[in-house]
Amino acid sequence: MKIITLMENEACGGLTAARGLSQYIETPKHKILFDMGPDGAFIENAEKLGVDLAAVDVAVLSHGHSDHGGGLRAFCEVNSQADVLVNPDAFGDFYAVVPGEAPRYIGLEADLWELESRVVPTAPGLRLDEELFLLGDIPNTFPWTPVVEKLQEKTPEGFRRDTFRHEQHLLVEAWGKAALFAGCGHGGIVNIVRAAEAQLGRRPDAVFGGFHLFELDPTDPKSEELLRATGEELAKGNTVYYTGHCTGEYAFEVLHGILGERLRPMHAGTAAEI
């Protein structure tokens, strides 16, 4: 299978960069778009990279944050055929809540429901066909899973920490290989990889996604402990990891020290063959 990163925080080859994520996946049966970045700029990058988004037949939104779904409407304007697979909970009221600051809305545009004819509601554990499977409701089995307090959901009772029930991950199998697409990996990248392993009966050959570790404090000894425990767990097996977006430079550096060339950046414009 072929994977091309269309949008990420950094870009190469004169492409546009923006804080967000969008990836194109090509298999024997499908042309897939996984996430749509913060806006429609990923479409211009796709054109420069020779990716025909009009030919995409399946689109997947990993979760309900605008840096992954802000370009959904723009995608639907250039593609008239693809089903857009979205967990219904992705349209919740999601905020970044920092003490001393006004809560900042980070969810999807409310009027995206106007695209309901294109949106297909999903559920965790949904088998789409022999190539595609959606993981969700990931159990927390790893004691070093980081908790991000500022990511919250607004409810009638007030703000509460986001449980990420709206997050889904795509497992793609083709030519005897398996690749996991984890978006931001809020549920903990180790937990998500373990869930993929339980589904496959083995570890995936490749993992693409953010690990959401960018807010770790390099001066806090517990940060390095967490990263080393994470790296040692990810080092099991032979999986190659392509990461960026919300992983962070510090986390990448520590994890690269453990995983070596099995940890690779996925900036906009990079491509991989699995």
Q: What does the average pLDDT come to?
A: 96
Termini, distance in Å? 5 Å
Q: What fraction of the residues are assigned to beta strands by DSSP?
A: 25-35%
Tell me the name of the CATH homologous superfamily: Ribonuclease Z/Hydroxyacylglutathione hydrolase-like
Low-confidence stretches: none
Overall 3D shape: globular
Tally of helical runs: 6
In CATH, the architecture is 4-Layer Sandwich
CATH level 1 class label: Alpha Beta
Radius of gyration: 17 Å
Q: What topology, given as strand order, has the largest sheet?
A: 8-5-4-3-2-1-18
| Proportion in helices | 10-25%
Short description:
The chain has a single domain, classed as Metallo-beta-lactamase, Chain A, CATH 3.60.15.10. Helices cover about 20% and strands about 25% of the residues. Helix 5 packs across helix 6.
